Amino acid sequence: MTSVAAPSLPWGEVWGQDAAVDALRAAAADPGALAHAYLITGPPGSGRAPLARAFAAALIAEGPGDEHTMRQVLAGTHPDLAALRTEGSIIRIEEARAMAARSYLGPSAGRYRVMVMEDADRMTERTSNVLLKALEEPPERTVWILCAPSDADLLPTIRSRVRVLRLREPEVGQVAALIAARTGVDAAVAEQAARHAQRHIGMAQRLATDEASRIRRDETLRGVLSVRGIADVVEVAGRIVQAATDDAKALTTERDEAERASLLRTVGIADGARIPPAVRSQLTALEDDQKRRATRSLRDGLDRVLTDLQSLFRDIVMLQFREDADIINLELVEDLRERAARWPAARTLTVLDHIAETREALEQNVQPTLALESLLVTVVSGSSPNSERRA
User: Fold this and answer.
1) pTM of the model
2) The dihedral formed by the CA atoms of 201, 207, 208 and 210, expressed in degrees to the nearest 10
């Protein structure tokens, strides 16, 4: 089993990215080597956000011994840190403007003012232009740290003004070792979770520690493999959307209630008391934010389902080309072999193309059930309705 190093400030939550840590540690220690803006890219689960926070802590702290400042930054409470992580579908232009305005303030307590934007790929072009202005003429002691899956997710004008740092993707065995060390789960469960999560550390940890998530994933994949006709399409698509909806509610409901109670306590309103008009606008704003978060949570849940389906049909393609050394869904391998023998590879590739199209459709607010029904029709028929319309 791969060993897991003991945590050390501020890099303790960064794992498996030694080259990136060395580069950023050196930049934080040498003002002459420091760029005014960085873009950290890597696949989901590669550790972009923990690395950004660790770099921010190293920049703001007075040195390796300034652990108090580092802990403040890592907790998100230091005055010289501004961090934006959207829980909506996009970063709103008002949020970007607020970040840009704060970037022009000098550091108040630390060496630098650091602006961290974790979801830079969720900016529209108009919002990106707000950020571009802040990057063109940054103050001397302000450093921007952007995070995105790929540099291609940002406008070329922004890419030209940042230093790109690409993270590596860890191996399944490395993720499994980390999850086993963090959670204490059985090594076999950790390995399965790392494999099913396709090396996404956060998702692997959830699968390893939440049996219901493991069962839900297995039922979804077996359900899709069992689809034979239109009646199955409607039933399975409905089950998938309902499961994703229930999962999203489970993740957001408790937090929503706690936020509402906290707001009412802050303004001195007891439980069950009448809400005065002056507070209603604050509650409405909170509820609007929560609705955006719920929508994002549902989309993220459906995107995880599509990622799992992508792994399923990717495995089939691998078997069709006699490449079975790196199968993700080993528990279903006999069913996958049967499908691989029965289908031509072109049909499997058509399904994979439609999975990508479905992901794009959901980002454009297409009704989830209809999008998944269309995808499952492709699984049944071997041809994509979208492809036929384009033809």
Assistant:
1) 0.71
2) 140
Tokens of 287: 């509820």
Q: Which amino acid is at 144?
A: W
Instruction: Identify the burial level of 271 via C-beta atoms within 10 angstroms of its C-beta, where 0-12 means exposed, 13-18 middle and 19 or more buried.
Output: exposed
Q: What is the pLDDT of residues 280-289, one digit of tens each?
A: 888 888 888 8
Radius of gyration of the chain (CA): 23
Domain residue limits, the chain: 18-166, 172-209, 230-390
| H helix runs in the chain, sequence order | 18-29, 48-60, 67-75, 93-103, 125-136, 156-159, 172-183, 187-196, 201-209, 211-226, 230-266, 277-320, 333-342, 345-363, 368-381, 385-390
Instruction: From the options 3.40.30.10, 3.60.15.10, 3.30.413.10, 3.40.50.300, give the CATH code of 18-166.
Output: 3.40.50.300
> pLDDT by residue (tens digit) across 164-192?
999 988 889 989 998 999 899 999 999 99
**Residue 30, Cβ density class (10 Å: 0-12 exposed, 13-18 middle, ≥19 buried):** exposed
Determine the pLDDT at residue 68. Answer: 94
Cis peptide bond upstream of 50, omega within 30 = no
